[in-house]
Amino acid sequence: MTEFTLFDMLRGLWSGLQWTLVLSLLAFVLGGIVGLIVLFARIADNRILQAVSKGYIELFQGTPLLMQLFMLFFGISLLGLDVSPWFAAALGLTLFTSAFLAEIWRGCVESIPRGQWEASESLAFNYGEQMRHVILPQALRIAIPPTVGFSVQVVKGTAVASIIGFTELTKTGTMIANATFDPFLVYGLVALGYFALCWPLSLFARRLEGAFHVSG
């Protein structure tokens, strides 16, 4: 059995925590960009775009993230292309995140009272002007709390990437636990690491929700 001090464990887990944070940020930012594109397709005045975007959302919301990562990691390899766990994890989490964010944001857009649409139509705004000047500014205000709240799910979702070999916090914890034969302590520290990342985000989302509810 390899001798690990508590400091050795913490140092190893800190490295994994950093990769968890990097993957979370990348997936959230890129997922937000893709999600915005999907959102505009979902609310577009075009049935084909609506159908394609709806199918995209249902595909990634209706299948487990683990299966999505497996399909990307092993599926791309079957095409004769080398794919690293890092690339597959980033791509999979980006697509997963984009589908959920697009649906969250669609709900925010559709929550805008119909009177706002009618008022902008009376000003002779076209669809693009309605969205840019009237609907999206109001929807953005509504969307901030649930968007921040969903970031917690993105952080926790990175743990699934350990299954395809990406060395984030969970994978690092597993390797240390196998080396030290002390899984209770190691996974307890892993849990604390996730808590340290997720709890501030959850608290921030609740405060934002309360603030926007009061001001609204």
UniProtKB/TrEMBL annotation:
Task: Give the main location.
Answer: membrane
Where in or outside the cell it occurs: the entry states: Cell inner membrane; Cell membrane
| GO CC terms, sorted | ATP-binding cassette (ABC) transporter complex
A GO molecular function annotation here is: transmembrane transporter activity
Its BP terms in the Gene Ontology are: amino acid transport
Keywords tagged on the record: Amino-acid transport, Cell membrane, Membrane, Transmembrane, Transmembrane helix, Transport
Annotated membrane topology = Multi-pass membrane protein
Q: Which positions, given as ranges, span the membrane?
A: 20-44, 56-80, 86-105, 184-205
User: What Gene3D superfamilies would the database entry show?
Assistant: MetI-like
Which residue intervals define the domain ABC transmembrane type-1 in the entry? 17-205
Family recorded in the similarity comment: Belongs to the binding-protein-dependent transport system permease family. HisMQ subfamily.
Q: Name the chain's protein.
A: Amino acid ABC transporter permease
Organism, by scientific name, is Marinobacter nanhaiticus D15-8W
